[in-house]
Amino acid sequence: MHPYRTHTCGQPRKDQVGSQVRISGWIHRKRDHGQLLFLDLRDHYGVTQVVIQPDKGFFDQATHLKPESVVTVTGTLVARSPETVNPKMPTGEVELVADEFTVQSQADTLPFQVAEDDGTGEALRLKYRFLDLRREKLHMNVMLRSRIISSIRRRMTEMGFAEFQTPILTSSSPEGARDFIVPSRLHPGRFYALPQAPQQFKQLLMVSGFDRYFQIAPCFRDEDARADRSPGEFYQLDVEMSFATQEDVFAAMEALLVPLFREFSDWKLADAPFPRLPWRQAMLKYGSDKPDLRNPLEFLEATDFVGRMSLAPFREAVREGGVGRVLVVPGAAEKSRKFFGDLEDFMKSQGAPGLGYVTFKAGEAKGPLLKFMDPGLQDELKRLPGLDGKDSVCFFLVGARAEVEPWQHALRTRLGADLELVRPGEFKFCWIVDFPMFERNPDTGSIEFSHNPFSMPQGGLEALRTRDPLEILAFQYDIVCNGVELSSGAIRNHLPEVMVKAFEIAGYGGEVVEEKFGGMIRAFRLGAPPHGGIAPGVDRIVMLLAQESNIREVIAFPMNQQAQDLLMNAPNEVTAKQLEEVHIRVSLPKA
Predict the structure, then answer these.
(1) Which residues, at least 6 apart from 78, have a Cβ–Cβ distance to it below 8 Å?
(2) Helix (H, G, I), strand (E, B) or coil at 323
(3) Residues in a beta bridge with 47
(4) Which of 118, 119, 370, 537 measures 20 to 30 Å from 132, CA to CA?
(5) 138-171 pLDDT, tens per residue?
(6) How buried is 582 (Cβ within 10 angstroms: 0-12 exposed, 13-18 middle, 19+ buried)?
(7) H helices of 460-531, where?
(8) Closest CA to 559 of 143, 541, 567, 168
(9) Whole-number Å distance between alpha carbons of 306 and 324
């Protein structure tokens, strides 16, 4: 007999009654009934109930063991009486009557309970993450992640993609986030960088003649944490395709994501193709390039309308280049004064000066904004799409575009939740397309890349030479699901002269391009195919399929929101000798 187990704790069944069984695992729960001791023994595969009788020499030892101690039990499998069968457990029709009992490891008093959720704070859970991972929900999330990654690999291979690995130690490049830098021992004063993404390498693979590449790639960015973003490191499904158009990339990802999500969820999901929304349209309708399309609310353009109202702040905002947006919300006219007051307070907390609105009830318009509209404007308001004589509310947001769009997103999200408009049990995907190639930095006024510096501008070199940079669109795209951005991607800029010009517009001289991206420029000068790609976030895919709102719940060993690993105590100090070897002197900020 195997020294630890003949069965896992999830295997015993009624058809094995009478057989000798040995199982090993953690003591999940204990129930002392005086004359009998019941143990729920748990391993990776499940739970089996163990019965220890008082005449056994190990009865007292087992009674005093703490939960989460590891034991091996050998005994006879018996059927439970009908009234004690547990239908919630796969092993619930049987129990193991112990003949032998071996303690493999005794547990001390636990910092928190494993068998139940006792509301332990995240800091303590992360410090004892190995213990937290024993809990069923988190354990299942990590296993779900493993199965999802296996499915992704299989499906990508079946679609003709080859898996390659790219370097972890590379050079620093301006890709939008802070690098993690690694000092070189052999080259004093020089540094490697951990890759924010395998961007340059996967493009070079296409230049090398490979046709379809993928990788479950670790990426490193020195960013602040969010609910949907882990600080420090994350994993993405990195993809690149040669001789591919934007639609080819979309088709490949849709062929992956639709069956993948259907494999791991029974939520409703429409067939491909997913809707394509131009970036400007998404910002107008939703105030966000990550719209949750389960929410049916959409804003309407109303800049001209509010500019003709007699309300001075509205007219002044439009005169200064601001925008006006109107949101029609059917059925909200019946809401209480408190509802509207709470909503206005919420918008003020988001930085808005307030929240103007007009209600329509039984065909009658009411609200403080009406007095700033002449009869013609009031009639025009009544003809807005979505009103149709229904009891509705029109909310108004006016101001600079950079202010109004976040207010739109906040208001739409809040109303979607308060009015229960977001349809549960459904995944809604969309592609956001036609991103601007450049944007103006609001602090410095300089022109910068808005998305990915390696993207092909729509119109190519001619557009870069002749058009206002802020009007140039790029072959860039995002894929969004239920308000979560899963990925950014682009058709790449594979022409050296186009790349040099694009970086020149963004303030990088030709010498900088040669220094930072010399490898790519050399490659492009020796024959590069048109190519494009994308990189959906694995952590976010798992988060959606696990129905978790926090990405740390689907990562085995995450950092906290302060980018600290509380389990391994990282980051920590290193010795003076280690610093000397890499030619580093630490200069701490003054307290």
Answers:
(1) 17, 18, 94, 95, 96, 97
(2) strand
(3) 42
(4) 537
(5) 999 999 999 999 999 999 999 999 999 999 999 8
(6) middle
(7) 460-466, 496-505, 510-524
(8) 567
(9) 6
Nearest alpha-carbon partner for 379 in 408, 358, 353, 348? 358
The H-assigned helical ranges of 372-453 are 375-382, 401-418
Distance CA 279, CA 436 (A): 8
- The terminus-to-terminus CA distance of the chain in angstroms comes to 64
- Contacting residues for 277 by C-beta, under 8 A, at least 6 apart: 285, 291, 430, 431, 432, 433
How far apart are alpha carbons 285 and 108 in whole angstroms? 57
Give the position of tokens 């994308």.
Answer: 534
Max CA separation in the chain (angstroms)? 94
Tokens 């007219």 belong to residue: 315
Among 527, 537, 536, CA closest to 243: 527
Instruction: Identify the band that residue 223 occupies on the pLDDT scale cut at 50, 70 and 90.
Output: confident
H-state helical runs in 383-509: 401-418, 460-466, 496-505
- Which residue has 């939740």 as its token pair? 417
Question: Helices 496-505 & 510-524, crossing angle to 10 degrees?
Answer: 160
Q: From CA 226, how far away is CA 229, in angstroms rounded?
A: 5
pTM: 0.93
Residue 321 DSSP code: T
Q: Dump pLDDT digits (tens) for 228-254.
A: 788 889 999 999 999 999 999 999 999
Give me the residue label for tokens 């071996």: 102
Q: Are 183 and 193 in contact (CB under 8 A)?
A: no
As a whole number of angstroms, the distance between CA 242 and CA 470 comes to 29
C-alpha count within 13 angstroms, C-beta hemisphere, residue 121: 4
